[in-house]
Specification:
nine-stranded mixed sheet; Immunoglobulin-like; single chain; 3 domains; mainly beta; eight-stranded mixed sheet; disordered N terminus
Length: 364
């Protein structure tokens, strides 16, 4: 039963032509198949398709049909589509021109030619190719570190486009996946950033769209700097933390919290993004000591200790050579030697040695 129904549908165009007197009434329907030819034409969406058909003489009766019915019968246009026209570059040409083709134009078309001697049909199968187009992509998403993330990118086109994901990292490295669904298990802070979906086929340039993934994580101290200062001068302590969302900062002196602006203590806190600075306008003895920088966001808290040291002025020693060649050094106690210059420093010990030797000889 299925085969018979299919055969009836195949003979429907010929029965319509008989009604139009394009085919002789006594001609068997099966005889049309003996002169059938098939052609395929591929056109990109939006372009013009020309389906070729030629007759043997001017007296031939011709018609164009598709699955929906009759398009042209002779010179009479049956279709209401303004994009469809006859293409007649010569008296024997009976081609069909379809402007701005779309996917609903896809399918078989039949040109039927009836002469005085025989009937010939030619079939053209029109394939409409469609450039890739991303129809759906995930919105920007914010997740906590360690969560599972699934990104979706759906694209349409003919042939079916290939989907490629890549992670656009600050170091310009690219990681590629060839799936509509990109699944990231236990996402890390290094995997945050922009993800690009690219849909490609051989018809036209690729279609690309991006989605941003923001990964929240608790703060970590990335830099802290102790300092030393002179009493009466200005000084500062610096603390920097990495976190998403951006961290809030607090400062403590020993166990006491330091407010943002404390004019009584001469302290001021300045926060710029991920950096915090504790400013001391006029250092006093009370300002020296241990400070704690605390960074917090909704996922956690961390801290670090910093010190404000007292700067001690170094003592300066003067070498003998810097005092001059005639410098005098005095030594307390017996046997003091006065050094006048380089030569007298040696003459005094020699004289004493000579006197001692003389005394020894006299005793002998």
């Amino acid at each position: 039963m299925v085969g018979r129904s299919q055969a009836d549908r195949n003979q429907l165009p010929l029965l319509l032509l008989r009604l139009l007197c394009l085919l002789p009434t006594g001609l068997p329907v099966r005889s049309v198949d003996s002169n059938r030819s098939t052609d395929n034409i591929t056109v990109r969406q939006g372009d013009t398709a020309i389906l070729r058909c030629f007759v043997e003489d001017k007296s031939s009766k011709v018609a164009w049909l598709n699955r929906s019915g009759i398009i042209f019968a002779g010179q009479d246009k049956w279709s209401l589509d303004p994009r469809v026209e006859l293409e007649k570059r010569s008296s024997l040409e009976y081609s069909l021109r379809i402007q701005k083709v779309d996917t609903y134009d896809d399918g078989p078309y039949t040109c039927s030619v009836q002469t005085q001697h025989h009937t010939k049909t030619s079939q053209v199968y029109l394939t409409v190719q469609v450039p890739p187009k991303i129809s759906n992509i995930s919105s920007d998403v914010t997740v906590n570190e360690g969560s599972n993330v699934t990104l979706v990118c759906i694209a349409n086109g003919r042939p079916e486009p290939m989907i490629t994901w890549r992670h656009l990292t600050p170091t310009a490295r690219e990681f590629e996946w060839g799936e509509e669904y990109l699944e990231i298990q236990g996402i890390t802070r290094e995997q945050s950033g922009k993800y690009e979906c690219k849909a490609t086929n051989e018809i036209a340039a690729a279609d690309m769209k991006q989605v941003r993934v923001t990964v929240n994580y608790p703060p970590i101290i990335t830099e802290s700097k102790s300092n030393e200062a002179t009493t009466g001068k200005q000084a500062y302590l610096r603390c920097e933390a990495s976190a998403v969302p951006s961290p809030d900062f607090e400062w403590y002196k020993d166990d006491t919290r330091t407010h943002r602006i404390n004019s009584a203590q001469g302290l001021e806190i300045k926060n710029i993004g991920s950096r915090s600075m504790l400013m001391v306008a006029n250092v006093t003895e009370e300002h020296y000591g241990n400070y704690t920088c605390v960074a917090t966001n909704k996922l956690g808290v961390t801290n670090t200790s910093l010190y404000l040291y007292k700067r001690v002025s170094p003592t300066i020693s003067i070498r003998a050579s810097e005092r001059g060649s005639n410098a005098h050094f005095k030594q307390k106690g017996p046997g003091t030697v006065i050094v006048d210059n380089g030569t007298n420093g040696l003459a005094a010990p020699l004289w004493l040695m000579a006197a001692s030797l003389f005394c020894l000889l006299c005793k002998c």
